[in-house]
Amino acid sequence: MTLEGHAAPVYGVCVSKDSQKIITCSHDETIRVWEIMKGNLQKTVKAHTSTVYSVVLSPDGKLIATASADKTVKVWELGTGELKDTLIGHTSHVVGVAFTPDGKKLLSAGWDETIKCWDVETGEVLHTFTGHQGKVHCVCTAPDGDTFFSGGEDKTIKLWRISTGACFHTIQPDPLGKTAHSDEVLAVAVAPDQSIMASASADNSIRTWKVIGL
């Protein structure tokens, strides 16, 4: 089945908790909700004023968060498509978002070299994480609810703790590409048991890392 309707490149996709819907985001500034079984377009939302780079669902499946080149993060009600909150604070493109496992916090990765942690209920910035030397391309949260991972233009992968607001480990780049990435890190993901982390890079490689002991 092919789902057609976006008017420009599609950058992000996620699946609803009940496996009945697909949510997509695009350079056409919209998010779209599709019915999986029939492929019908259920809803189109003019979400941002520029490219929408990322869309994720909250753990309870009720909220959608989107990240955009318009420098904002937005939180939406999946059921109604209504805007719940607009999170303003980044000074450049926001390209990645991730909920914590309890759904109470939201992390955003920006090209302003920062990661921000937001309170989903109030929309407040709880902390701004700095340390990357260049654009931050991606962020993902760990199952423990405190650890998260980020990757960026500086070719590093960083491990952070929300509770301390600090980076506790950095995987440095390897110019030869033997022990680490040699180019920008574009995506990171962690296993459900938090034992393995995977990263994807502009150096054409995907790497896996043992998280235990870091």
From TrEMBL:
InterPro entries: WD40/YVTN_repeat-like_dom_sf (IPR015943), WD40_PAC1 (IPR020472), WD40_repeat_CS (IPR019775), WD40_repeat_dom_sf (IPR036322), WD40_rpt (IPR001680)
Family matches, as Pfam families: WD40
Native organism taxonomy: Eukaryota, Viridiplantae, Chlorophyta, core chlorophytes, Chlorophyceae
Start and stop residues of the WD repeats: 3-44, 45-86, 87-128, 129-170, 178-214
Organism listed in the record: Chlamydomonas incerta
Name under which the protein is recorded: Uncharacterized protein
UniProt keyword annotations, A-Z: Repeat, WD repeat
Record flagged with keyword RNA-binding: no
